[in-house]
Amino acid sequence: MRKAWVLGLVAVAACLGFVGLLVVGTYSAAAGMFGGGTARGTVALAKGAVPAAYQGLVQRWGNLCPAINPALLAAQLYQESGWNPRAVSHADARGIAQFIPGTWAAHGIDGDGDGDRDIWDPADAIPSAASYDCELAQYVRKVPGDPTNNMLAAYNAGAYRVIKAGGVPRISETQNYVRIIRSLEKSFARPVGRVEPSRQAAGAIHYAQQQLGKPYLWGGEGTAEDGGRFDCSGLTQAAYRTVGIELPRVANDQYNAGPHPSREELLPGDLVFFSDDLTDSRAIRHVGIYVGGGYMINAPYTGAVIRFDKIDTPDYFGATRVTEDGARALPRRGA
Asked: Following CA atoms 251, 253, 259, 263 in sequence, which dihedral angle do they give, to the nearest 10 degrees?
C-alpha cells in the first residue's frame, strides 16, 4: 500500500497545468501539518448529515443520557433505516428506528406528547430509540469498559450477555455492530479539530486523472460493458477502489464515508458534494474528487466528459474525508 501511495503522489505531480502544482503543494503541506487525535468537546451534528426534518429531534434526544450523543443516535438511525420512516425489515422491524413490535410495546414512548405511541412516527420513534439506549446503559452501568460500547453491545446481544462477559462479548456480530456505529458516529459529528488527511487520497486522484476526457455515462461504473465510462459516483467509487477502499454506489451514501472538513480545510482527495437542498445529505445529487485550488475532477452530466470543474457554486453542499473505517461501516443498500 505504501508503494502505491508514493506512486500515486508522484503521479499527482504530473497533473495538468496549475491544478497539478496545487495538488502536490497542498497535499505535501497537509502531510506535515496535521497529526492524529481528535479534540473533545460538545457533540454537534455535521452540516446536513441528518435530514432537516429530524435534526432537532436527534440533537435534543441525543443528549438524553451520558452514554449517547446526537451523532451516535444519528449513526444508529442511519444504520437501521437510512432515515426511512416507513422502513420494514424481513424480521418485521418497523419505522425509522426499526423497532420490533414486541420491543416497541415495552419500550416505545410518546415522544411528542400527543397522547399516542406511534411506531411509524419519527417524533415518537426517535425519542424511543434514545430512551431505549439509555435504559440499556443503566442495565450495564457497572460493567467495566467503555459505557457506550457496552450499551451498544447490549442493544445487539442483550444486557445479560454484556454483564456475563464483563464487557463487549466475543460475538463477531456484536463486535462488528459496535465498531460500525462508533465509526459512523464520526461521520455524523461536526469536527471539533482538524481532520487527519487520508493516506489514500493521492492514489484516488491519480486514477481519476487517467479518466479525464472520457464521456459521461449515466449509471456508468467503468466496466467493459460501459466502455470504460462513468457517472459521478461511479468515478469516485472506482477511484477509491484502486486504493483498497470500497465506497457505496450512490453519492448521498458516499457522504457518510468519513468526517466532514470545512471548505477552508479541504485537501486533495476529499469528496465534494452538491445538492439542491443544502439541509439534507440524502438529497445530494453530485460528487467529485477535490484536487486543490478550488477545483475537482468530476463526471458532470450526459453530453460532457470527465473534466476539472470549480467547486465554488451555489449548490456546493460539503465534503467528506474518506476513511477506511468510515467506508467499511456504511450499509450496502439495494438500489
From this structure: 30
Rounded to 5 degrees, φ, ψ at 323 are -125, 155
Q: What is the pTM of this model?
A: 0.83
Helices assigned H by DSSP within 158-308: 159-165, 172-188, 201-210, 232-241, 251-254
Instruction: Compute the mean pLDDT over every residue in the chain, rounded to the nearest whole number.
Output: 88
The half-sphere exposure of 17 on its side-chain side, counting CA atoms within 13 A, is: 4
Q: Do the bridges between strand 284-292 and strand 271-275 make them parallel or antiparallel, or are there none, so unpaired? A: antiparallel
Alpha helix ranges (H) inside 13-62: 17-33, 52-61
User: All 3 cell numbers of residue 124?
Assistant: 415518537
CB-based contact 183:325 (threshold 8 Å)? yes
Contact between 119 and 94 under an 8 Å Cβ cutoff? The reply is yes
**DSSP symbols for 259-302:** ----GGG--TT-EEEEES-TT-GGGEEEEEEEEETTEEEE--ST
Each residue's pLDDT tens digit, 190-241: 998 888 888 899 999 999 999 999 999 999 999 999 999 999 999 999 999 9
Burial of 329 (0-12, 13-18, 19+ CB in 10 A): buried
Q: Which residue has the cell 470549480?
A: 310
CA dihedral 57, 63, 64, 65 (to 10 degrees): 160
Q: Distance (Å, rounded) from C-alpha 320 to C-alpha 245? A: 14
Selection from 165, 233, 214, 191 nearest residue 42 by Cα: 191
Residue corresponding to grid cell 464520526? 186
CB 137 within 8 A of CB 151: yes
Measured CA to CA, the distance from residue 22 to residue 266 in angstroms comes to: 12
Whole-angstrom Cα Rg for the chain: 21
List 275's β-bridge partners, or say none: 284
Distance CA 29, CA 193 (A): 17
